[in-house]
Design brief:
396 residues, alpha/beta, Aspartate Aminotransferase, domain 1, Aspartate Aminotransferase, domain 2, 2 domains, 7-stranded mixed beta sheet, 4-stranded antiparallel beta sheet, 14 helices, 38% helix, 14% strand, globular, binds 4'-deoxy-4'-aminopyridoxal-5'-phosphate, binds glutamine
């Protein structure tokens, strides 16, 4: 199937049925590129996942709880000890006192949290604002809720938000603004002034904010992550989502969480309890212990990935790729217009098949892709892998 966001008509043989609820959607670009990378034996710098081991101490706790019998349903909102550990982290990092009982819900990854949040908030006919290039799961969830996604482009090369464009996009139907910081795919981060602008625009309006903060610990160059949880006004109208997958090099566990004030959490849980009901028990118990005993892991993540980013940039310094600023996440954008005029989907496919390095074309995250020719590389890989990939990329 075609990558989901190429938005051209599909050939009749693979077109979804006329009754499809998501007629423009195919298989996600992450699936397409990872499958192709496997088929071609290519180095996979496409789909974002680390190749570092999950911390041994955390694995030990999982094994302990598996053997110790923690193998039945967890409470619907999450294990109390994990919710308490999350609340303690939110207080320590962002100065926000949240009630673990009413305000914290453990979810099946950030994906489920985002989906449940959108279903909980968006009514038919409502509008949700997203910033392009936008992570691919937002729009389909809005569509399934009967809403309309309004796309506001970020401004290259730093991919900042133009708040005047946001102001112009707000209508009486706007019900949700989805912000993602640090931002996938660009690596841009929101600063305190951005949060002020968002607070100004949503004040006295029936607008909820969804904060996708799955890369909250991966911020570089001394900047601090401006969580919605930090902002006294915004946090009262926000659902803030994060994921342990990024933090513990364990994307396959699919455990995330949503922090929101009681009334929003109540609506969120109405959806969560039927989308998922509850999340894998032994992992929750293990994460609760690890989060509490080993805060140095998440506190060290920014430095860990900044080294990777810098190594990757250094390795590519002689290439014909122009490397764009990456202020957070484990992604690096690269402009390849000095290499070819080919569109980014075709170039990414060719790079995987012919050169053996898979990347993600950025145009698929846009409603109206700009003329820029940009690929996203994931640098969450060991140095030997980055070196092998860079050797190839420097020859192109
Ligand atoms: N949001 C963003 C911006 C992401 O990059 C990802 C996954 N990489 C998710 C949400 C989904 O996270 P999870 O794997 O925990 O479902
Ligand atoms: N979020 C990951 C990325 O951006 C992939 C998640 C997925 O495969 N759905 O690469």
């Amino acid at each position: 199937m075609k990558p989901s966001a190429t938005r051209e008509p599909l050939p009749a043989s693979i077109a979804p049925p006329a009754t499809s609820k998501l007629p423009g959607v195919g298989t996600t670009i992450f699936t397409v590129m990872s499958q192709l990378a496997r088929e071609c034996g290519a180095i996979n710098l496409g789909q974002g996942f680390p190749d570092f081991a999950t911390p041994a101490g955390l694995l030990d706790r999982v094994v302990h709880h598996l053997r110790d019998g923690a193998n039945q349903y967890a409470p619907m909102a999450g294990m109390p000890e994990l919710r308490e550990a999350i609340a303690a982290k939110v207080l320590a990092l962002y100065g926000r006192q949240v009630d673990p009982v009413s305000d914290v819900t453990v979810t099946s990854g950030a994906t489920e949290a985002i989906f449940s949040a959108i279903q909980a908030v968006v009514h038919p006919g409502d509008e949700a604002i997203v910033f392009d290039p936008a992570y691919d799961s937002y729009e389909p969830a809005v569509t399934l809720a009967g809403g309309r996604t309004v796309h506001v482009p970020l401004t290259a090369p730093r991919y900042g938000v133009d708040w005047q464009r946001v102001a112009a996009a707000i209508t009486p139907r706007t019900r949700l603004v989805i912000v993602n910081s640090p931002h996938n795919p660009t690596g841009a981060v929101l600063d305190a002034a951005d949060l002020e602008a968002l607070a100004d625009l949503t004040r006295d309006r029936p607008i909820t904010v969804l904060g996708d903060e799955v890369y909250e610990h991966i911020v570089f160059d001394g900047a601090r992550h401006e969580s919605l949880n930090r902002h006294a006004e915004l946090r009262e109208k926000s659902l803030v989502v994060s994921s342990f997958g990024k933090t513990y090099h364990a994307t396959g566990w699919k455990i995330g969480y949503c922090v929101a004030p009681p009334a929003l959490s109540e609506e969120f849980r109405k959806v969560h309890q039927f989308a998922q009901f509850c999340v894998v028990t032994p992992m929750q118990k293990a994460l609760a212990e690890y989060l509490t005993t080993t805060p140095e892991h998440h506190l060290g993540l920014g430095g860990f990935y900044q080294d990777k980013r810098d190594r990757f940039l250094h390795l590519l310094r002689e290439s014909r790729f122009r490397l764009l600023p990456s202020a957070g996440t484990y992604f690096q954008l690269a402009d390849y217009s000095a290499i070819t005029d080919q569109g980014d989907v075709d170039f990414a496919l060719r790079l995987t098949r012919e050169s053996g390095v898979a990347a993600i074309p950025v145009s698929v995250f846009y409603e109206k892709p700009p003329a820029a020719r940009v690929l996203r590389f994931c640098f969450a890989k060991d140095i030997a892998t980055l070196e092998r990939a860079a050797q190839i990329l420097c020859r192109i």
